[in-house]
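Justification of computing resources. Each target in the renewal requires a structure prediction run like the one illustrated here; the chain below, 315 residues long, is used simply to show the kind of job we budget for.
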Amino acid sequence: MVDGGRGVVSAARRTPGTASMEKLAAQVKTCQLCRLAKTRTNAVPGEGNVQAEVMFIGEGPGYHEDKQGLPFVGAAGQFLNELLQLAGLDRASVYIANVVKCRPPNNRDPEPDEIAACAPYLERQIAIINPGIIVTLGRYSMARFFPGERISAIHGTAHIVDGRMCVAMYHPAAGLHQASLADIIRSDFRKLPIFIEQARKMLSQSALTTEEERIAEAESAREQVIQQPETAAVLASDQPETNGHEDAPTAVEPLILRESRAAKPRAQVEGSSTGARVAKTASEGPPVEPKPKKEPTKRKKTPEKTNDYEQLTFF
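Resulting structure tokens:
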């Protein structure tokens, strides 16, 4: 039976991945691939739901984890429990693992060869669980998915890595050692429900794998834009060609932008040569007969009206 959500899973709760994870855990516990095997008390394979939607990956076991053979059971683990609650999660619904499965002596940082030795175990865990979203905790787990990045720059943000959503977070221990980081970590964890929902949508959309379905989806989106009243009005007008226009965008601007652009007071667009001539004529009274070979003062207003939309591109 399960003791507090930990330990051996009862037969009634076994899932297809349970046996594979138990076999992997047995390999980790007897692993001799790096020097950490000589100093550990217990290896710490990982813990949690093998069908978890969210997988957390820390750096390595600490003193208490080494004694109990379980991840995040010390002070950092208590803080992690609080953070999970902020995200609407609990330990029974997620899976927690580490980059290295054995405690580095004196809680030093793991060495590159130690990380490399444990990498196949971590990859196998990810393959068994197949989580919708991975949350990295700390610099060393972040480096596995975001090489070359700095955690201070990308913490609390989600990115797609190898077709899966990954979120970089500070390690909970950082909030215990630096009080200034505790609230930042809490704020980052409050974003997790949003990221989880986005990951769900991404996974559901990935089912549209055929070219015909992707084309149909694009055509549907196109029709929704074209049927907007303001869009239809612009499409019905005589629009100038924007090919070669260096300011022409490559995508359709948001409808709210078109509305604000169309509603712009005339005084804001009189900076053009046409607008200046119109303003000058209005202030000086009746138009004066133009000299030969010069453009007539009276001009069509179409260029002025079109000027408001000249940077729009429609499909």
